[in-house]
Amino acid sequence: MKRLFALILVLGFSIKLLTAQFIYENRVYSPLIRTVILEQTGKILSDPVLYLGSEKKLALSFDELSEETRRFEYTIIHCEADWTESNLDQTQYLEGFEVQKIEGFANSFNTIQRYVHYSQNIPSNDLRITKSGNYILKVFEEGNEEKVILTRRFYVVDDKSNIALDIHSPNDVSLLRTHQEINVKVEGKNGFFFQNPEAFMKVVCMQNGREDLKHLLQLRGSSGAALDYSFDQSNLFPAGNEFRRFDFTSLKLRTQYIRKFDFFNGENQVFLLDEKVKKGLAYSSEKDINGDFYIRNEYKEDNAIGSDYAWVHFTLPMQLSLEHSYYVVGSMTDWRMSEQNKMKYEDNAYRLSLYLKQGVYNYLILSSDCSESEATSIIEGNHTECNNKYKVFVYYKNFSDNYDELVGFSVVEN
């Protein structure tokens, strides 16, 4: 009996440990859920960032490909800098009802694909977030928190830092044409001082929205109260290339990168021009939205419920690779390389079809089973002149409650 009791204790501890180590991501768990967007209210293409004590909110929206309206609820989970759940109880970082309903919903109109569009401001007027840090928004079926339909990352900043960012060409001559170097200096403001920064501070830099290009910067030194995170391998990022793009706000008028429209099997079809391998080509400056997307339709009616869906077909003619797989990656695929956005080889080309809502989209074609630099360069190429958006997050360990505060956030584009 004692051995059985000990085994139960060990198993219980192991399960708790495994649960605590789960890394939360931007994920969709239902094939019927599409076009998930979380951004600042009234600001398209904005980062999902709030500031502690501010009355501003985030706008969540998503579609369910169904004509039947269902009820969904959400909760908010506090996470550490590595996106594992923190040790805080919800009552320590939330004031109000911990489970809230998704209140906004409307059926699509004049669309071939019928869907219900859901929307909600986060947090609601009945909920207040009291601590800074990384957060997960978890949406689930009403009354059943185990039936999760989607999760989304967002940030709450307690602005205690001045952050200086600088993008320039690398000092390493061998990387001069292919990489960018991000130098960061952090200083506490309004009397805030970082104690023992090597032990209690994390400075994270991310290129565009790419989780695979997110680096933990290393402290180089300090000058007075300013902490210097520069001239280190962790500051180097493959520069990549300008994002590929297409615009199908219209399902009749062909724009620059669309070859043709069609309609069969009762669904809209959009065929893009054949993709090119950009590696080895000269750099060309093109305006993009750094891998993001936004929803629009040609009639300029309610974009949320008046925009239709279509199968968008990607084709990359090239020889079959025995070493690498290729993925269409951007905000529209949650920046992930998964089976859903993996290109399949057929008829002398890599091909992929994605079911997307009318709008403007950016994307890259990335490679797997290779180094960080090669993931981009094999198809896209790397050019130090490329325009990128870098986000810097400053975390500081809270001594009293033992969690990662988010005490600084800044963005820079070159």
How does this model look, in words?
- The protein is built from five helices and 30 strands.
- The chain has helices at 2-20, 90-93, 197-200, 303-306, 372-377, and strands at 27-28, 33-40, 49-51, 58-64, 72-79, 94-96, 100-101, 104-107, 116-122, 127-129, 133-141, 148-157, 161-168, 179-188, 201-207, 214-216, 221-223, 226-229, 236-238, 244-247, 258-264, 267-272, 293-295, 309-317, 326-329, 344-346, 349-357, 359-367, 389-398, 403-413.
- A hairpin with a 2-residue loop joins strand 21 and strand 22 (267-272).
- The protein is globular, with a radius of gyration of 23 Å.
Brief characterization of the structure:
By secondary structure, the chain is mainly β. The protein contains 5 helices and 30 strands.
SSE arrangement:
Layout: H1 2-20, E1 27-28, E2 33-40, E3 49-51, E4 58-64, E5 72-79, H2 90-93, E6 94-96, E7 100-101, E8 104-107, E9 116-122, E10 127-129, E11 133-141, E12 148-157, E13 161-168, E14 179-188, H3 197-200, E15 201-207, E16 214-216, E17 221-223, E18 226-229, E19 236-238, E20 244-247, E21 258-264, E22 267-272, E23 293-295, H4 303-306, E24 309-317, E25 326-329, E26 344-346, E27 349-357, E28 359-367, H5 372-377, E29 389-398, E30 403-413
Parallel strand pairs: 3-12, 22-24
Antiparallel strand pairs: 1-12, 2-4, 4-9, 5-7, 5-11, 6-10, 8-9, 11-12, 13-14, 14-18, 14-19, 15-16, 15-29, 17-18, 20-28, 21-22, 23-28, 24-27, 25-28, 26-27, 29-30
